[in-house]
Amino acid sequence: MNSKLNGFGLATGAALLLAATMAMALTPAQEGRRVFLRENCYGCHGGRAGGGMGPNLRGEAEDVSEAVHEGEEGGMPAYPKMSSLDIQNLQAYFRSIRTSAEPTFTHWWEAVPTR
User: Fold this and answer.
1) CB count, 10 Å around CB of 49?
2) Which long-range contacts link 62-65 to residues 24+ away (Cβ below 8 Å)?
């Protein structure tokens, strides 16, 4: 009987862990915000991508992969190792700015950013 309970407990625990992990999955815009913060893009493009030393990226709908991978004249450094998924997520973040879906957290290192 005890082994049946242990098996039930393990299965239940595994199911709860899977459900919690799935619930913590971030949207592409949230992942893009995480990349934006992690790579220090805000240092030039501003905390909400509104511009600064670098241009405003709000609503950027064009493919930014070339600019990211190769850099741009005037100071944009190249990020040749950034994945295409990270770039897609960045674009989702740029499109989300000034909408109800805009993520505004500031702690990219948290599994589920809250601030």
Assistant:
1) 25
2) 63/91, 64/90, 64/91, 64/94
- For 10, residues 6+ apart whose C-beta sits below 8 A from its C-beta are none
CATH topology of domain 27-96: Cytochrome Bc1 Complex; Chain D, domain 2 (1.10.760)
- Domain-by-domain residue ranges, the chain? 27-96
Greatest Cα pair distance in the chain: 71
pLDDT of 66-110, one tens digit each?
A: 999 999 998 899 999 999 999 999 999 999 999 999 999 999 998
Q: Are 51 and 87 in contact (CB under 8 A)?
A: no
Is the pTM higher than 0.85? The answer reads no
